[in-house]
Specification:
Helices cover 51% and strands 11% of the residues. Strands 1, 2, 3, 4, 5, 6, 7, 8, 9 and 10 form a ten-stranded mixed sheet that branches. It starts with a helix and ends with a helix. The longest helix has 77 residues. The radius of gyration is 44 Å and the shape is elongated. It has a domain of 377 residues: Beta Polymerase, domain 2, CATH 3.30.460.90. The chain is of the alpha+beta class.
Amino acid sequence: MPVGIFRVCLVVITAIVNHPLLFPKENGTVPENVEEIIQKMKEREQSLRLEQLRLEQEIADQEARQKIVEKAAQVVEERPEEKVRWDMWTALSMVIFLLIELWRQDFQEANWQDTGGEEDDMAVLGKAFKGVSFPDKAVLASFYEKRILGTTGDMARMREMVEGFADDLLEALRSVCNRDADMEVEDCMGVGSMYENWRVRKPFVCDLIVPFAPPEPYCFRSQTWCSGDSFPPDEQGYGTIKVCRADEDVAGCICDKTKLGEDMLCLLHSQANTTRPSSEMEDLLCFKNTQYLDADQVMKWFQIAVTKAWNRISHKYEFDLSFSLLDLPGALKIKFRSGKSIAFNLTPVVQYENSDVYFISHFPRSSLVADFPSSTHWFLTFAVYERRFIQLISKTLPANACHISCLQILSFLHGKQCSLTGPSGLTNYHLKTVMLHLLQACPSQDWAPENLEARLQDMLKFLEKCLHEKKLYHFFIGNGRVPEELGFPIIFQRAEPLNLFRPFVLHRDVYRKTVDTFHEMLRNMSALINEYTVHIPHAHTNGIHKES
């Protein structure tokens, strides 16, 4: 635009300067032909007007282009604002959606033991039960009386015999061990289905745990996955055990964590104390070049000690003792001369602080899932608290309550089905966990003996729900409703719930096999029960069907 104005000014100045009136007549020559001059001036004036019009048009065109550029720039400036505004709303919507999803998952986990929620689930579940003929009360009662009830007396006699022999064996073990160098063995405790009175399938096997401690001046310092330090997901439920001197600081001296110079000396620890020989730690059953207790080393030591103890007292008994299973180092078998045998497990454990939670060296689990952490990671067992909880809750239930009966029937059906179609990812511990959840969720009067059929269906539907969601939470870990009378450690109540079905998420083939076995068990349930049921008169059965 400034260029156009300059051109107009230049034309006007040129016209003024070249106008003939600016020159005096005496200083110029007057042309002879005045008309010709006038004509040329008109032509000149016409050309100047045309030039002026052309320049004005150029100026107008430049102004129009300038407006278009400014408008385009304004549109470009508005578009990022709109884009930013749109991106902001999109991001905000995504955040709100994620918050809702996280709240939904937290709500579900926080109410995994809510009674009302379970009742709603029971109403919508049961798809696997369509077309399945469920045994009636009379058939279930007859089956339980004939197949299961008669085994209770056998279990009591076997427990008494195994406990007496185990006490004698451990007393001999203490006598053959070096009190100054070997581990100190305490009295054994009975845990599991045999001591909770719900084992049904033979052979009966007693599970005994044996706490042990290191010799003086050493002690065990344990660390669990929920103690604050990060543990990988596959090590949830495990912990480590460090062998330390009793006079060592729990937090550890800085000389153990910092490399001191050659001319520096720790005033709290001498050089002899800070560097322990590798052989000394191995004698304390630690993993090579570490201070962490090795489960494999412990089981080797325990097997050798048990063998020495048996050699000392074998002359007192008229049977033989041997280790029965290679994959379960503490599995022992008593063989009588008559050919009969009794199996029991004697497993060393380490007490967690001053509680009845124990680190167990080997824990039986499904053979289909073989993911085990290193031998320095010990599984935590809550078997003592589980036994106490069942005893405590049984005092509040009606006489002859059906909770144990339901667990026995379910364990029998699952074991029978696995013997037909092969092993499953489900274990008896999973089935017991289902019962523990329902014991806490259902009112006490619901466990009356006449409700056996209804409670058994509830356990099956609850198990179906857990299999569908691949979630079965450990009963004690993360459960804030554990009765105070048990004295359960608060650290485990405040921990995140532990999903016992996590292996099903990682092993789809095992999960598929487990679900198929469960559905097959439901279809074969009536046939399996009728196989062991006393014949019931047809008229009596029809009368029951009419009432229902």
